[in-house]
């Protein structure tokens, strides 16, 4: 299935458009996956970084009270950090800190997926155009919203940590602290 999904994204003239269509079709099924381990297995084994990024973007858009319409960028990931909440569908008998842990896991996965496709592999281009770009050794274009400062990151992280500590009502578990450090 993962290989077929990856090929479906790749063969289209516009991988960005095809990944959006496929993600829109798959997204309702992801919301109905009952176990975290199953959701993570699906997302971690996804061969198409572009499709994984789009699915995670939809997941975070769904968890925001005020979704943003901006295109995917580092700034948008910071927006998700500030405005996302734990998804209600995933609130089963697991502890609150584990739901925050899952959210941090998906934020890290989104960041890794985003960094892979626009910055390294020209995956926004069709396969034939991508070959030309690689031959020309063209550098991928950064978006204006990818230009974020260390201060932006620090402020958003501090805000996120405050929200999480308030929701948990206790010191952050070591596992969460490690994920926060890695994300930052």
UniProtKB/TrEMBL annotation:
It comes from Edolisoma coerulescens. It comes from the Eukaryota. One of its GO terms (molecular function) is SUMO polymer binding. This is SIMC1 protein. Coiled coil: none annotated. InterPro entries: ElonginBC-PRC2_ViralRestrict.
């Amino acid at each position: 299935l993962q290989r077929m999904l990856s090929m479906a994204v790749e063969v289209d003239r516009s991988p960005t458009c095809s990944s959006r269509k496929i993600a829109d079709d798959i997204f309702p099924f992801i919301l109905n996956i009952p176990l975290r381990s199953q959701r993570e297995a699906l997302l971690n084994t996804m061969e198409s970084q572009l499709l994984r990024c789009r699915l995670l973007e939809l997941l975070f858009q769904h968890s925001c009270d005020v979704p943003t319409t901006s295109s995917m960028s580092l700034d948008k990931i910071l927006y998700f950090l500030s405005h996302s909440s734990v998804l209600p569908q995933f609130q089963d008998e697991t502890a609150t800190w584990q739901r925050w842990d899952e959210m941090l896991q998906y934020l890290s996965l989104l960041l890794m997926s985003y960094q892979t496709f626009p910055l390294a592999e020209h995956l926004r281009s069709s396969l034939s155009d991508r070959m030309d770009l690689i031959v020309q050794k063209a550098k991928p274009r950064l978006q204006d919203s990818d230009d974020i400062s260390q201060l932006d990151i620090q402020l958003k992280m501090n805000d996120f940590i405050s929200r999480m500590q308030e929701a948990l009502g206790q010191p952050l578990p070591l596992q969460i602290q490690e994920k926060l450090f890695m994300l930052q």
